[in-house]
């Protein structure tokens, strides 16, 4: 499974997650996504307010990638201090394409040009309202497997499969 939203039934199955540095944004974004009619479900992978340090960014990011690749979710929105750590960690899961994006154009292109299944954001980098807006925008984009970009995504997938 590619995690490609265009192959899914109506309504995205989303994951949200963070370490302690992204907890506040993760919770706000999760609340927004639960109210979004384009979203079928939102599963929170942590961190929690009770013990924000118990969840590390690598553990939440790799778990999200594994669940997407197992077909249990379509996409994930992950938050850490910068968004960089969760992006790096999620990209270690074979088949996952994750990116940090802090502007609308990058969010759009992450899906339309790169079929990214994981959006990462930095709580210490952008304001809360922008983060919430970007997450809402991101769920509205769907990769077109017939687009010019599909050949580039296929080349990435082929390379990755050759490295295994």
How is this structure best described in words?
The chain is globular and about 45 Å long. It has 6 helices and 5 strands, in the order βαβαβαβαβαα. Residues 1-9 have low confidence and may be disordered. With 164 residues, it is α/β, with parallel strands linked by helices.
Index terms:
single chain, alpha/beta, five-stranded parallel beta sheet, 6 helices, disordered N terminus
Break the fold down into its secondary structure elements and pairings.
Blueprint: E1 12-18, H1 23-34, E2 39-44, H2 57-69, E3 75-80, H3 84-90, E4 98-100, H4 104-112, E5 118-122, H5 128-139, H6 149-162
Parallel strand pairs: 1-2, 1-3, 3-5, 4-5
Helix pairs in contact: 1-5, 2-3, 4-5
- Oligomer class: single chain
Count the E strands. Answer: 5
> Count the helices. How many?
6
- Amount of helix: 40-55%
Sheet with the most strands: spatial strand order? 2-1-3-5-4
Give the biggest sheet: 5 strands, parallel
Distance between the termini: 17 Å
Query: Could you say which structural class the secondary elements and strand pairing correspond to?
Result: alpha/beta
Give the low-pLDDT segments. 1-9
C-alpha geometry: globular
Please indicate the percent range of residues in DSSP E strands (runs of 2 or more). Answer: 15-25%
């Amino acid at each position: 499974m590619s995690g490609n939203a265009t192959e899914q039934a109506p309504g995205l199955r989303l994951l949200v997650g963070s370490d302690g540095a992204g907890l506040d944004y993760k919770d706000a974004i999760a609340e927004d996504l639960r109210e979004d009619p384009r979203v079928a479900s939102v599963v929170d992978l942590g961190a929690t307010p009770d013990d924000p340090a118990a969840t590390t960014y690598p553990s939440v990011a790799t778990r999200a990638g594994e669940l997407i690749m197992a077909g249990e979710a379509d996409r994930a929105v992950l938050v850490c201090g910068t968004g960089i750590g969760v992006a790096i960690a999620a990209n270690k899961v074979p088949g996952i394409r994750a990116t940090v994006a802090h502007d609308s154009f990058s969010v759009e292109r992450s899906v339309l040009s790169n079929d990214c299944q994981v959006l990462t954001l930095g709580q210490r980098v952008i304001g809360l309202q922008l983060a919430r807006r970007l997450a809402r925008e991101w769920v509205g984009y769907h990769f077109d497997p017939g687009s010019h970009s599909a050949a580039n995504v296929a080349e990435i997938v082929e390379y990755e499969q050759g490295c295994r």
